[in-house]
Amino acid sequence: MTGHPLKLILMATLVGVLVTACESEDRTKEDLMQSSSKSTPLAPPVTRIENVVDTHWGVQVEDPYRWLEDQDSQEVLHWFEQQGGFTEQVLNALPIRGQLLERLIELDQGAPYSTYGVRQLANGDIFFLRRNAGESLAKLYHQPKGAVEATLLLDPDALADDADSHASIEGYMPSWEGQYLVYGVAQGGSEETTYGVIDLTSGETLSDTLTNIETAYNRPQWSLNGQGFYYSRRRELPVDAPDTEIYKRTEVRYHAIGTDPIADVVVAAFGVSDLLPLLETDFPSVVITPGSSYAVLKVKHGDNNEISIFSAPVETLLTGAVPWVQIARESDLVADFAVVADTIYLITAKDAPRFKLVKTTLTAPNFNEAREIIPAGDLVVEGIAAAADAIYLSVKQDGVNKVMRLSGEGDVTTLKTPRDGAAYISSVSPQVPGVLVYESTWIQGGIRYVYDPFKDSFTDTGMVPKGKFDDLEGYVAEEVLVTSHDGVDVPVSILRRADLVLDGTNPTIVYGYGSYGISQDVSFSPIRLGWIERGGVFAIAHVRGGGEYGQAWHYAGRMQNKPNTWKDVIATAEYLIDKGYTAANHMAPMGGSAGGILAGRSITERPDLFGAVVMQVGMLDAIRAETTTNGVPNIKEFGTVTDAKGFEGLLAMSAYHHVEDGVEYPAALLTHGFNDPRVNPWMSGKMAARLQAVAKNNSPALLRVDFDAGHGIGSTREQVLAQYADIYSFLFWQLGHANVPIED
Asked: Is the pTM of this model over 0.85?
């Protein structure tokens, strides 16, 4: 299973010496590989082999690069620095790279600004995050009712620890009456969040500072009187604590403004109440709803979508003896909920593969006798939120996102947006009637509307100004069904130029994700336009493991069913070849995070089917995943090596363990932020080393490292655009460049 270091030296020398003296964009991949330059390192670092063999359930699993997991080691850090430096020089030497970066910047700045994260208050005030064209990160703005312009409230550029790093805003929440606002800040894409508080009356930042905040699944909730907020916090650990302990024993606490956080009351946590059967790995959080006398405790079980729900009178939360009552267990398959007065609405997959909507009372909850509001059927019910006038639902009809309204009288209607595109709930407040709806298509920029329920009308809020490239002619989005290996039809969205000739030569990305029930929903991307305008095909495979067809579709691609995810990609690739879009040497699978499983296993199972691959912050060593900080929460999605079937499933999805000597794999680009708390950088490091060890001919394996980034959350715009310039230039280099003229 292990490769010989000599192979690495020979391959890397060939790539490093020959790649950088490219003189013309018209050169082929082979031409580029036959150039020479003295300015580029001869090779990435030689990666020593120190093989470790583990035995799981009678199966020996080799791990030749286990030593790379010690990221505190100076040797490992130096290895990543050398890998990143080598890759940077290789990619910077590609002539098209500079052109692509310049164009991506132009496309990204086509609109004067973009906004998201909108919050509305009963007094008419609006808060939102906005990134102006040319700015690195989104800033927080406040627009009082009646004001023509918004006021800058928080600038992350002023919050960085030092001049060589950056900070990002990781969520915020204003109090119900607009007196205070709590915000989160993280450094360098680390997601290590600290809360601060702003007095909105004076504009001053208060001394209240809360650390170790858990933000992956929770957001702060203000008390009804606005004098404090509930939040979820990770416990303090010694510096030598195992990484697997970091996400355990999350607590819900209450912080009163102006008090010492050390004295914050613990409202819910593992082991604090016999009424709360919480596990160490659970993530609890409190939800407060104006107009209701009950608080709801949401308990997320790791990364599992199915939550447990408890309730208690709001007035009891700080008593030290909260009378929690359980409303739903994990086995009740509840995925989302909303509260209206003393009624709770629940989205559940119980006896409903695509979910249904039920309701019960908070005064005497009984899930088993909950009243059915929207029955199980072809409709996929995804999300729910309560406004002052009605319940609003996020649903999928025939694969397209829509927003539905459930009135107090029980009438259910689908909102018809002006362009009849895909529609999403953008912002809902229990104190404000109506809903903000974001509408988009694959090839048209989005618009945010305010829906007036009394007039049944939509009005453009102006919060998403139309960009120069938002509505270009000459592009098409095709929706097709591809029959996978087992006869199941998989939806695929194919984005391309309308004038593209389907002659089998077009560079093509097959993008997918396929985990956690997350759907690849309709959206417009200027960055994606940078690929397709040059003649690239961008195919989005809605593989199993996602949520396109509800919980059943998700479960068909998780744990032992995970092979369906990459086999759906393989079927998509074969379809694209059969229909003349592309050929094997012109095509690459691409996926990030859990989508790294999809990309990595696609090329290790069918290396003959692709000319390149891109794996972004990929989960590539599934066997070792649960030894990491985020590994234990992911057991519910991927499985555990402590169970025989679980180990079997993890081994099947672990791309690193399927790289074989003597096999010619496609060229690979792996990208990772060194501060990543979700997928450890050594996942990409070990995969890159293994591919480098077996690489042949003109198929380099490059590891791109960003030492001021993490999982991508909180990255600056410069970081995002530079990464995609690298990805696209790498793929055009490896797959061929159609050189189609660009028209603005």
From this structure: yes
